[in-house]
Amino acid sequence: MPNAATADAGSEADYLKDPARLEALRRLNILDSDSEAVFDAIARCARDLFNVELATIHLLDDKRQKVKASSNGKRAGDTPIGETFCEYTVRSREQLLFVPDLAADPRFQKSEFVTGPAALRFYAGIPLITSDGHAVGTLCLLDSRANAIEPFDDHNLTLFGELAEIAIKTMELRRTHVEAQDHFLRAIEEDGLTGLMSRRGLLLHLQQIADQEPQRTPRFGMIEIRLRGLDRIFRAYGSGVGNRILQQAAERIQLAAQPGDFLARVGDHSLLIAQTFRSMGDQFEPSVAHEWGEARADKILRLLDAAFLVANGPFYLTANIGIAFSADGDISSYSVLEKVEGAIFEAEQKNTAASLVQWSKSGLGKQHREGLTIEHRLREAVADKALSVVFQPIVNLKDNNRIVGAEALVRWPQDNGPPIGPDFFIPLAEQLNLIDELGLWVFREACKTLKHWRDLSDRDLWMAVNFAPKQLKDSGLAERLTAITSEAGVKPEQIKIEITESGLIERADQVTELLHTLIAAGFKLALDDFGTGHSSLTRLIHLPFSVLKVDRAFVSDSPDGAGAAVVSSLASLAESLGLETVGEGIETETQEHFLSAQGYDLGQGYLYSRPISAGAFLELIGTANAASSVQDKNENAFKV
Question: pTM, whole model, 2 decimals?
Answer without folding.
Answer: 0.49
